Amino acid sequence: MQDGNATSAGEETRGLVKSPQDMFAGLFIIAFGLACLWASSNLSGGRGANLGPGSFPRGLSFLLMGIGGIIVLQALTVIGPRLEAWSIRGPIFVLGSVLIFAATIRGTTLNIPGIGRTDLLPPLGLIVAGPLTLIVASLAADERNWIQTLIFSAAMTAFCILLFKVALRLPIPVAPWAGW
Amino acid sequence: MDMISNLALGFGVALTIKNLGLCFLGCMIGTLIGVLPGVGPIATIAMLLPITFGLDPVGALIMLAGIYYGAQYGGSTTAILVNIPGEATSIVTVLDGHQMARNGRAGAALGIAAIGSFFAGSVATLVIAALAAPLTRVALLFGPAEYFSLMVMGLIFAVVLARGSVIKAIAMVLAGLMLSTVGQDLETGADRMTFSWPELSDGIDFTTIAMGMFGFAEILRNLESPETRDVLKSKIGSLLPNWEEMKRSVMPILRGTGLGAGLGILPGNGAVLGPFASYTLEKKIAKDPSRFGKGAIEGVAGPESANNAGAQTSFIPLLTLGIPPNAVMALMVGAMTIHGIVPGPQVMEKRPDLFWGMIASMWIGNLMLLIINLPMIGIWVKLLKVPYRMLFPSILMFCCIGIYSVNNNPFDVMITAFFGLVGYAFIKMGFEVAPLLLGFVLGKLMEEYLRRSILMSRGDWSVFVDFVNRPISAFLIAIAVLMLIISFLPAITKKRDTVFVE
């Protein structure tokens, strides 16, 4: 039932936890179930034949915790893969570039209690968000070639503007400060 | 004949210049993106969804169907020319297809894949046209309890057919169902698990989950393993298989079409089994099984036909019952909903132009793929050489623009980044995310049907397994339970592993 290196790991002896990956997965599912149970605790469960808004989520929470429990038990009995190492650079630059796109495309306004709405970033549009996203994303790769990256991000942004704004007419801001 | 007149109506819709153009465009860009290594059909469709937003529903669906076939086709091209299967269904094509390419028969492998797919697609179109009306009538007999049970069965099928651990797949389905409950409750209007964020009260958009967990997480995974892209260096050669190869391929194409079309109808991703079943069958009945894995053309012709036939007949559960059988069809539901169409038996009655137009365009799309793919193969080969360090930022950019355009809301883009991280964590924990997406798409409907069934039965939970009054529902649940039990039998577990490893 396990994939990959499960069988090859068969000879070595392990401690209490036979499959660290499954252990982690099971605990995660249990935690997710608990969190959902807590998040839906304010919802009515309905009465009798009339199921309320809380019934389905709560039922699912219990099922999740049960399944999570089975996965944990499995992790204690069946030898399985170890936890893989997480890379740091990939997630930071890839997801970071996406967040930069979200923050710059139409600007960011924060609603801070007590102070009110504060403009964090002005709307910059695709013409700025595009190259920024592409350059930051490129940092996630092993190889780096700055000149190539710069030319590529300019060309790709131009292509996207032509495709999405000019040809497909999607209402995406390109250069809002210039009224486009 | 009803079927003939219906198809005539469909071709009338699909053969307008505009719809032909959209079909062509869909096939083109579907292939263009699908051919890129590391970009499977799910990511391709998710990425290209926004370009259909401005169209009318008929045009949009025709284009989407084109994108879907194009993505499938593109995946096969990648499988043959590069040693990378774009998705589960082209794993089998890699085995003999890439070997054929190494033996200097790349052209023949691509050619037979295209011919087999076209034949299979044509047959499958007829199957859909023939089965759609009767199945829709059956669907109208279904009450809430039957629908609920059918969805339970579909999800169980999807779990059993998913790669990896069954238990973990169940966990993913449940997580998907859970995510679908976020947002306003349809009946009472109560805000559910939104943590008072107004952005969440409309629920989570399915495109954010799909692109985050499939698109972004896939990129993160690809970045970790250093690229080993073994693009074919030698010439592709003539695209037409020689006489000997043609003769060898005829029967596998016929058998593959039958297998694929049959399995594709099953709710719960039966289509994924088609290529495996076909490959196993061809290897078993071959005079010399040792040729397989070394470039046997039967090992390309059969599975490729099965793949395409299944890809197409998996529209049947969606169009007739409104239940998507796999993650790609789940995306199609999302696309239809964006255009204000709720998939299900009522579509055929209320929008016959849309229904039959889409079916007719499936066949036209297959024909177009045959025409565009073969002469343009040189361009696809060039695309295969684009380095990943330029590819993935472009994919990210397209995804960002796409997600933003769904609601013109940057918040959706942030949510997608979050789901990208979650998807990456799931990969690290050994979870397969396709069942989650399916659970998510079915979740709202399932809950609604569950609540209605319980209301109608006055709180009696045995309504789903009541063999006397609700035989259909009880039968569906029985099949689901049976499938689940079988999947846990040790003998089957072992076989299942080898099927997916091979």
What labels describe this entry?
heterodimer, A: 180 residues, mainly alpha, two-stranded antiparallel sheet, 5 helices, 4 strands, 8% strand, extended, B: mainly alpha, 21 helices, 73% helix
Overview of this protein structure:
- The complex is a heterodimer of chains A (180) and B (502).
- Chain A is mainly alpha-helical and 180 residues long.
- Chain A has two domains: 4-77; 89-178, no CATH class.
- Chain A has helices at 20-39, 55-77, 89-105, 126-138, 146-167, and strands at 46-47, 50-51, 108-112, 116-121.
- In chain A, the strands form two sheets. In chain A, strands 1-2 form a two-stranded antiparallel sheet. In chain A, strands 3-4 form a two-stranded antiparallel sheet.
- In chain A, β1 (46-47) and β2 (50-51) form a beta hairpin.
- Chain A starts with 19 loop residues before the first helix and ends in a 13-residue tail after the last helix.
- The relative contact order of chain A is 0.11.
- With 502 residues, chain B is mainly alpha-helical.
- Chain B has one domain (2-139, 147-501).
- Chain B contains 21 helices and two strands.
- Chain B has helices spanning 2-14, 17-34, 41-48, 57-81, 91-140, 144-161, 166-180, 206-224, 243-265, 273-285, 298-313, 315-321, 327-338, 345-350, 352-373, 377-384, 388-407, 410-428, 434-456, 471-488, 490-501; strands at 183-184, 191-192.
- A two-stranded antiparallel sheet of chain B has the order 1-2.
- In chain B, a hairpin with a 6-residue loop joins β1 and β2 (191-192).
- In chain B, α2 crosses α15 (352-373), α9 (243-265) runs parallel beside α11 (298-313) and α13 crosses α19.
- Chain B is globular and about 65 Å long.
- The chains are: A mainly alpha (180), B mainly alpha (502).
